[in-house]
Write a structure and sequence with these properties.
Elements: E1 3-5, E2 14-17, E3 20-30, E4 38-45, E5 51-57, E6 61-64, E7 67-77, E8 81-86, E9 89-97, H1 98-105, E10 113-119, E11 122-127, E12 131-138, E13 152-157, E14 162-166, E15 174-178, E16 183-188
Antiparallel strand pairs: 1-6, 2-3, 2-6, 3-4, 4-5, 7-8, 7-10, 8-9, 10-11, 12-13, 12-15, 13-14, 15-16
Length: 191
């Protein structure tokens, strides 16, 4: 377990703070007039999802959390949970509360492989690919002269997610979606 000084607590680092694993979302080291430097951070609890703003002073340190990564297969979601199974070991199933992973799961088709971050052998969070290819399930027809609004329409994807796509996209097309922004990226060749 590495001990990080105040200025080594950087975004995407996972630290142990108050006995729980936290992901560093942002950090900013600054010095106010004649005072010692401070690292103003924003931390997200990997268990509860709670976000805290914490200042680390130059004499403070934090322990890097001992986390591991595991590949898992997305199985399905219901109203309250999203279920996964360890890749190669379908008996090892686990779930996350739907409200904590909904923003990521909406882009996943069943049997998609994702990366799961574990802490003390317990699954904490998932990491999905930045770009995914999904089939358009429903797309309203383009109406002639409808380019005033920017030339987009709302389409429903095979996972149930809704996204704005260009007017030339039709049902059955395969589109690439940027999962970070939730936006259409490009149309792909049909398989």
């Amino acid at each position: 377990m590495a001990v990080l000084s105040y200025n080594e607590i950087l975004p995407k680092t996972i630290i142990t703070y108050s006995g729980a694993p936290y992901e560093v979302l942002s950090s900013h080291v600054f010095r106010m007039q004649k005072r010692k430097p401070v690292n103003q951070t924003k931390l997200r609890n990997l268990v509860t999802g709670q976000v805290l703003e914490i200042s680390f002073h130059s004499n403070e340190t934090a322990e890097e959390a001992e986390t591991e990564r595991m590949d898992a297969v997305y199985l399905y979601s219901n109203d309250k949970e999203s279920w996964f199974a360890e890749e190669g070991n379908p008996k090892n199933r686990f779930s996350f509360p739907a409200d904590t992973v909904h923003d990521q799961v909406q882009w996943l088709a069943p049997n998609t492989v994702v990366e799961v971050l574990t802490y003390e052998e317990k699954p904490m969070t998932i990491k999905i690919p930045v770009k995914v290819d999904l089939v358009v399930k429903e797309a309203p027809p383009a109406v002639k002269g409808n380019t005033v609004s920017g030339g987009t329409k709302l389409a429903t994807l095979s996972t149930g997610a809704k996204v704005n796509v260009p007017l030339f996209i039709n049902e059955g097309d395969v589109v690439r979606i940027n999962t970070d922004s939730g936006e259409y990226s490009e149309r792909m060749e049909k398989a």
